[in-house]
Amino acid sequence: MKALELFPNKCIKLLHKNNLLKPLIRSELINNLLSDIHIQTKIKEKIIADFCERLNITDDANLNMWLAENKLDKSSFETLALTKIRLKEYCKLNFEHQVESRFLERKNELDIVVYSIIRVKDFFLAREIFFRIQEKEASFGDMAAKHSEGIENKTRGLIGPAPLGRAHPRLVELIKQSKIGEINSPIQIDEFNIVLRLEYYEPAKLDSFMKEKLSEELFNKWIDKETDIVNNNLLKKILVNNPESNLIQIS
Fold this sequence. Notes:
The chain has helices at 2-5, 9-17, 21-34, 41-54, 60-69, 74-95, 99-110, 123-134, 140-147, 169-177, 208-241; strands at residues 112-120, 158-163, 183-189, 192-202. 59% of the residues lie in helices and 13% in strands. The protein has a four-stranded antiparallel sheet with strand order 2-1-4-3, with helices on both faces. The chain folds into two domains: 2-102 and 208-241, no CATH class; 112-202, Roll (Chitinase A, domain 3), CATH 3.10.50. It is of the alpha+beta class and 251 residues long.
């Protein structure tokens, strides 16, 4: 982080005051890490070509115009185009060995579910809704659209596909105990009485997509810690040089 160490103290304090210091540190750390990641020439050329296509850059003249408008040179443009694949490769090299244990820790949160839900505050209404759906006097979707007091009334009760971990802990427990297609009798969660039917359940798998996702998750967790360390060191340095400063709070 030599570049930031060259910044005057006033500049560091200004960035910190406007909540820009940490994002800048994080960006610089990532740029420094990814600059050493080698990408094969053919792959690099394909990625840059695809990147140009997405930006509607069809020739060198268009490219030069785009660079001028965005105040970038060709080297910066290449870095921008290759950031995603370099990050993917860095995560694979440095964090994939931790993925299996991370997956086992979070597996239940990563399972994918689709369920129908109706939330009402009146227990007796919830019980009536349950019996009407169970006896096929009304459809779940119609009851949800008419009675549900949550946002699911806009989707006729349907939630998902979504990771199971996003749901309320008691709802997660209910979903795990449910059978697909069966409607559950009302249970109370917080202020609402819940009627639920599980529509779809897909246990998480440690496939290539999941490995990439968890590798990047581990990377983000690590880079956030590194960012905090650099941020605090910079601010402590300012405090040593200017102990009367009232602008700095170190997290």
